[in-house]
Amino acid sequence: MGETIGGKTAICGVGQSAYGRRLGRSGIDLGADAIRDALDDAGLSPGDLDGMVVSFGSPGGVDADTLAFALGLDLRYYSQTWGHGRFTATCIEQAAMAVATGMADVVACLAAVSFSGVTRPGRVKGGRGSAVGGDRDHEGAREAGGGHGEDPVVGMTSPGVGAALAAQRYFARFGATSEQLAAVPVAFRKGATLNPAAIMSDPLTIQDHQASRYVCEPLRLYDYCLVNDGAACVLVCSAERARDLAKPSVELAAMLPLPVSRREFIWAWPGLGVAQQQDGSWEPGRREEGLYAAAGITRADIDAFFTYDAFSFVVWPALERWGFCKMGEAAAFTQGGRIEIGGELPVNTHGGLLSEAHVMAWNHQVEIVRQLRGEAGPRQVADATHIQWGNVYGDSIIYRRAT
Fold this sequence. Notes:
Layout: H1 2-5, E1 9-16, H2 27-42, E2 51-56, H3 64-71, E3 77-82, H4 88-100, E4 107-114, H5 159-174, H6 178-181, H7 183-192, H8 206-211, E5 214-216, E6 219-220, E7 229-238, H9 239-242, E8 250-256, H10 286-295, E9 304-306, H11 315-321, H12 330-333, H13 352-355, H14 362-373, E10 386-390, E11 396-401
Parallel strand pairs: 2-3, 2-4, 9-10
Antiparallel strand pairs: 1-7, 1-8, 4-7, 5-6, 8-11, 10-11
């Protein structure tokens, strides 16, 4: 895909609603704010929008067709995926393919969530602070378990338990510690203190992290993402059209879709030995290296890295999957400010899901575009030209500042 349509499509506008807890607004309402903001950003009107791809935010989310009906949009292309963060790049890639093949001219990609105002169905209270207890909802009630590694048969009923399982395995295998992991949420919080949109903007220290309670060992309170309301949107159009619009365009230089097999687990690279994986080693192969080749760059040209951070731990295997450090080296790699703004490889400069807001990682895409436009203010990465979105799951997009 990267070789076929890379550089032919671009992000021409970005927008967001307010982020916060208990905003008392529906997903449709929040989504409308984000779409309007993105259209204004691009200098477009609702009549210019003829496509939409929605990452359905459940609970409290909104369907693509319902949103289009409510807003009076006349679309000739729409699609949606389940609202997991691993589908963010998938939505953008669908939009890029639709634009490149002439099925649409301007496609809005977004998620709108109202987490804090929703009562979960089938709620069952369990033990306090325990992943074995906790609230059981439809996510953990699937016949074969949930999409994050939940396994209700043995009482694993929350997404966090899958991340904790992978983290325990990683800690045991490589000798990593919770104190080392604290560097991730601390780095992201530093970006959030410079971000007026961030929900959590008070400084966070290693000591604060270590003093916080375990939710599911080895993950502590500050290793978990926020639960909030909000919406974010990016507009995809052709690279040619984007050059003539209101803001500098940001090209989709190369893309890789999600892989799936028994080797894959949502919180780990192949070989960590969780779920159906076998124990083994990992290093980037032809698939991963081909992404950089398709963009016409090397890994060293990446100015910042963004990844899904529902739990701080998953940042480590994501950095390793994409070759910024070797297997088992991320614990050391993330120390000493290396992933902070001004560091060697800034990561999630806006605060991510851990500190800015949980908007299914759509807020990450908004931040990437603003960074490449030079609009990030005090958290700006100097002279950013190429920024990578890359997940531990194996999907990725390389964004490039248009020249």
